[in-house]
Amino acid sequence: MARDTKIDANRDASDIPKGGWVDQLMPAWCRPYIRLARFDRPIGTWLLLFPCWWSIAMAQGAWGNGWADLRYFVLFGVGALVMRGAGCVYNDIMDRDFDAQVSRTRDRPLPSGQITVRQAVGFMVVLLALGAALLATFNLFAVLVGFASLVLVFTYPLMKRVTFWPQLFLGFAFNWGALLGWAAVRGELAVAPALLYLGGIFWTLGYDTIYAHQDRHDDVGAGVKSSARALGLGKPWLYVFYAATLALFAAAGIADAYPWPYFAGLAVGGGQLLWQVWDADLDDPHDCLAKFKSNRLFGWLFLAAILAGYLPGV
């Protein structure tokens, strides 16, 4: 009975923040667009950006430049914001009927009627154009790698209709920056970024399965498939996903001959992942969201581990 009460009490929670900087500072006409692109909820941008930054930091060190060239970090930061926004717009266009049936998402701009599909498509085109302009500043090989990611971006929203593992396909798309970051710096690919990419996929499987538990009950009625539904309250699988993440990131460090601070930092990050699973209440949507957002801390810890490998005297 207590479990059912907790679920029912949280089903009315919207994922759109109210009363924040969007409502206080922005004109009414642009608020739906900001919320459509999730500019008011930056955690997705961080999760898209970190694999890019990890790869850039590792590639610059392998290239012999250390990590002094901040241009790539800035460009990828802006690019992650823009492309995550475009992806969110496309996702909401495709999912507007599903979103109308889920408590957490029914007041998003499209299902609530704040903007039309035509307006959303126009906004998405603008964001994609900005992303293409940023991509064009890189070498030709990186441009080709970047454009290849669009196949994943535009197929991901369809996956929840046909498989219980859309989180896996999100991992394919969200960690592409591990390949693109290296390609932008080096003009080629190597074993290390491939291992970062694979490790990132398992990382996404972990954090997005936790995230999907927010909608586990509403998804049944809406016909939405997810790994949360497939696994149920399957914490052991979350441990497996995060263990694979750490093993593959460690292998990337070995492939790139990293010194011990890299592995020490990765171990600290591993502690954060372990805490997520151990402490998570998968029946509490608010706690699932908090644990999902805590992956930003893991992103910073792993980036620090990579950079620590280039400290003087190491």
Number of strands: 0
CATH topology type? Tetracycline Repressor, domain 2
- Count of helical regions: 16
Average per-residue pLDDT, rounded, comes to 88
* Large-scale geometry: globular
CATH class: Mainly Alpha
Percent range for β-strand residues: under 5%
Structural class estimated from helices and strands: mainly alpha
3D structure, described in words:
By secondary structure, the chain is mostly helical. The chain has one domain: UbiA prenyltransferase (Tetracycline Repressor, domain 2), CATH 1.10.357.140. 73% of the residues lie in helices and 0% in strands. It has 16 helices and no strands. Helix 4 (43-63) runs antiparallel to helix 5 (71-99) and helix 10 runs antiparallel to helix 15. The chain starts with a helix and ends in a 6-residue tail after the last helix.
Brief account:
The protein has helices at residues 2-10, 21-25, 31-36, 43-63, 71-99, 117-135, 140-162, 166-174, 177-186, 191-212, 216-222, 227-231, 235-255, 260-279, 285-293, 295-308. The chain has 314 residues and is mostly helical.
